[in-house]
TrEMBL record:
Its EC number is 1.13.12.21. This is Tetracenomycin-F1 monooxygenase. Keywords: Monooxygenase, Oxidoreductase. GO terms for molecular function: monooxygenase activity. Pfam families: ABM. It comes from the Bacteria. Residues 11-102 form the ABM domain.
């Protein structure tokens, strides 16, 4: 489970996927398989959470990596390149963005 903390040295990656209600579940199935079978086994992977809005038009993933280079290396693998082409076919767009945690509140 992701743990959000300012003192955390992890690299945070938030990816948003723009989908239709008709493709939302298909993309969720693809993403779930990618995380279960491949991404979670890559060096530096820490955790991920998948989120869907109530209209099923957006999916967001909140993932944490030990360091930026680990995430970038995973993206460059042949397997992830193939998976990203499949993912791209099910959504209008998707964009992974790297963030640093600057504050948390409980």
């Amino acid at each position: 489970m992701p743990h959000i903390a300012q003192s955390n040295s992890h690299q945070t990656v938030i990816t948003t996927f723009d989908v239709t209600p008709g493709t939302c579940q298909d993309l969720l199935d693809l993403l779930t398989g990618a995380y279960q079978d491949f991404i979670s086994k890559q060096p530096g992977f820490v955790a991920v959470g998948l989120h869907v809005n109530d209209a099923q038009t957006r999916i967001a993933s909140y993932s944490q990596w030990r360091k930026r280079e680990d995430f970038q290396a995973m993206l460059r693998t042949d397997e992830m390149r193939v998976r990203n082409r499949q993912i791209s076919g099910l959504c209008k767009s998707f964009e992974p963005v790297m963030y640093d945690v600057v504050a948390t509140f409980e």
